[in-house]
UniProtKB/TrEMBL annotation:
InterPro entries: Cyt-d_oxidase_su2. This is Cytochrome d ubiquinol oxidase subunit II. Signal peptide: none annotated. It is a multi-pass membrane protein. It is found in: Cell membrane. The chain crosses the membrane at residues 6-32, 74-95, 115-139, 159-183, 195-215, 221-240, 247-269, 297-320. The lineage of its organism: Bacteria, Bacillati, Actinomycetota, Actinomycetes, Micrococcales. PANTHER family: CYTOCHROME BD-I UBIQUINOL OXIDASE SUBUNIT 2 (PTHR43141:SF5), CYTOCHROME BD2 SUBUNIT II (PTHR43141). The keyword Iron applies.
């Protein structure tokens, strides 16, 4: 396999890692109005992701840096053309991070209320806009002969892209609620499981519509296989959640998100940024990649660093595997 093709799939794997890990962070943040009946409940929810949310976001940094190094033309076209959407994602991530750190700095309920609202917004905006962005990449956008985006922000808000945004929003929301049921005890765990059942039904309908549209309009045999496996995993997660098997439900939700991302990248291949106005202006794996020497250096670096990163992150989750309860929160307050 040529190195530029290898790095196309490595970047796909990095975005899978980011969407699976930060995806449940987004879902937990969006669940505050639905599961947080009082401040203690909201602290329980935030504490489920408190030790790991910033670690999960590093996957986005690594994915963006790898995209810049391996496919600079792709990076330049996407980040300039989707500038406003990506800026909104960045601002939302900043607001969310600040809110996690500042909500407990003062005891007033109004203070916490404002930061809780910012956590919800800072989680929902990226969950929606990531889907819009990737759907537009798969569908194609207007590009000139120099591979520059020639459309406007409103061109990105088309029906397919908006359905993609709604799909990621619902997938992350349900993923986060299942994670809450996996990481909590007592009443909040049961309420999270019941909410995941209700949101799961809507998520299945919306995600199935988006995946079917993707396969019919942009797909191939591999796309259809990945989309079919994603649908099976999503339905399996729903059924396991009905039975109260949170571990399997969470695992299959993670598989659903991973397979959905693979569906999008398989639909894209061998392009990286199709031109909707003229196929000759499209960016492909061949004309958007760095030099072979650059990709060789990146490959050796990844081979050395990746095992260390995986071991460290796996160890972190193992150490922090215990469930969070209202009792632990109330005891820590005294």
């Amino acid at each position: 396999m040529e190195l530029n093709i290898l790095w196309f799939w490595i970047i796909a794997a990095m975005f899978i890692g980011y969407f699976v890990l930060d995806g449940f962070d987004f879902g937990v943040g969006m669940s505050l109005p639905f599961l947080g009946r009082d401040d203690t409940d909201r602290r329980v929810l935030i504490n489920t992701i408190g030790p790991v949310w910033d670690l999960n976001e590093t996957w986005l940094i690594v994915a963006g840096a790898s995209l810049f190094a391996a496919f600079p033309e792709w990076y330049a076209t996407m980040f300039s053309g989707f500038y406003l959407a990506l800026l909104l994602i960045l601002l939302a991530l900043i607001v969310r991070g600040v809110s996690f750190e500042y909500r407990h700095q003062r005891p007033e309920s109004e203070w916490k209320k404002w930061f809780d609202a910012m956590i919800v917004v800072g989680s929902a905006v990226p969950a929606l806009l990531w889907g819009v962005a990737f759907a537009n990449v798969v569908q194609g956008v207007p590009l000139d002969a120099g591979h520059n985006f020639s459309g406007s922000f409103f061109d990105l808000l088309n029906p397919y892209a908006l359905l993609g945004g709604l799909t990621t929003l619902l997938l992350f929301f349900t993923h986060g609620i299942v994670f809450v049921s996996l990481k909590t005890e007592g009443d909040i765990r049961e309420r999270a499981r019941k909410l995941a059942v209700r949101s799961g039904i809507v998520t299945i309908l919306v995600a199935a519509s988006f995946l079917l549209w993707t396969v019919l309009a942009f797909g191939s045999l591999f796309t259809a296989v990945f989309a079919g496996l994603a649908a099976v995993a999503l339905i399996g997660s729903f059924l396991f959640n009905l039975r109260g098997s949170e571990g399997w439900a969470f695992t299959l939700m993670a598989a659903t998100i991973g397979l959905a991302v693979l569906t999008l990248f398989a639909s894209l291949f061998p392009d990286v940024m199709p031109a909707s106005n003229d196929a000759a202006n499209s960016l492909t794996i061949a004309n958007a990649s760095s030099t072979p020497y650059t990709l060789q250096v990146m490959s050796w670096t990844a081979l050395i660093a990746a095992p260390v990163i995986f071991l460290y992150q796996g160890w972190t989750y193992w150490v922090l595997r215990k469930r969070v309860s209202r009792g632990t929160i109330e005891a820590a307050a005294h």
